[in-house]
Amino acid sequence: MKKLIALLMCVLIAATVFAGCGSADVFGADGIKVVTTIFPIYDWAREVSEGADINLTLLLDNGVDIHSYQPTAKDIMEISECDLFIYVGGESDAWVDDVLAQAGNDKMVVLDLLDILGDSAKQEVVVEGMQEEDKEVKDDDEEPEYDEHVWLSLKNAGLFTKEICSALSSVDHDNAKLYESNAKSYAEDLKALDDKYTAAVKAGSTKTLLFGDRFPFAYLADDYGLTYYAAFTGCSAETEASFETITFLADKVDELGLHAIMQIETSDGSIAATVRDNTKTKDQEILTLNSIQSVTAPQIEAGETYLGIMEENLVVLAKALA
């Protein structure tokens, strides 16, 4: 991957030099350039920068989630020319270091969400009954694998929004007051929704979620004191659940008397349905929580927002916990 990125950068730089001869196109001439990897970051930046002259780019806008994305030549050029680049960090974004090293843009401001969280970043945990991936034995010196789904915490979103505001202000001093005003207003909206989540969890008859699927909601679960069981971790590439995993989850549904089995928006529903079919009553409702990993450009054009999706998730969560 490192060699491929280096090769692409050489080709792109050469193309830019020849294309730029006699051209009036100057870096930064079309406003502040901000590049984001995933939709939640894009939407936070859009909210904070509303009213300013910002050229905002979302790289993952075609439904591909963060775990399987690799940058195209166009993506690499977008990053190399931007004023502000914001990404999640973690194993799925391992390609970023090579791109930034090759970019040669020492004026670029870079935000890494996992780095912002620091000690608050959670390591990916395999809970009871969860099917582990087949991996080679880890070296003792190998770095821990962090849960990358940091955007699914409204509390984290508030922290990230502040950092985005600060970064935008650093590259665009003239609009600092605007960014601060927008960030303050958005933080209030996030806090109001956070309070609704707290109330919904408090009103629920259970504090446990069970997913016949991957589980990317660890940050959200920890925010509100929820326990959970799932077929796979949030970053797992597994798609086939073993007999033991299905049996454990079905037995856990019976043991806890759960009336809902959860899945995420990209699921085909087969594992959740199989878990239900192996319970005693076979009448649990299958509910879908949106992990906001595969928002597309048409959805954005239709008005999709981070807060809107999290509002919809609140309705689903309240139903699952009722």
List the helices and strands and how they pair.
Layout: H1 2-20, E1 32-36, H2 39-48, E2 54-58, H3 73-80, E3 84-87, H4 95-103, E4 109-112, H5 113-117, H6 154-171, H7 176-203, E5 208-215, H8 218-223, E6 227-233, H9 243-256, E7 260-264, H10 270-277, E8 285-289, H11 297-301, H12 306-321
Parallel strand pairs: 1-2, 1-3, 3-4, 5-6, 7-8
Describe what this molecule looks like in 3D.
The chain contains 12 helices and 8 strands. The chain has helices spanning 2-20, 39-48, 73-80, 95-103, 113-117, 154-171, 176-203, 218-223, 243-256, 270-277, 297-301, 306-321, and strands spanning 32-36, 54-58, 84-87, 109-112, 208-215, 227-233, 260-264, 285-289. The strands form 3 sheets. It has a 4-stranded parallel sheet. Strands 5-6 form a two-stranded parallel sheet. A two-stranded parallel sheet has the order 7-8. Mean pLDDT is 89; it is low at 2-29.
Features:
single chain; 322 residues; alpha/beta; 4-stranded parallel β-sheet; disordered N terminus
Write a brief structural summary.
The protein is of the alpha/beta class and 322 residues long. 45% of the residues lie in helices and 13% in strands. The strands form 3 sheets. The chain has a 4-stranded parallel β-sheet. The chain has a two-stranded parallel sheet with strand order 5-6. A two-stranded parallel ribbon has the order 7-8.
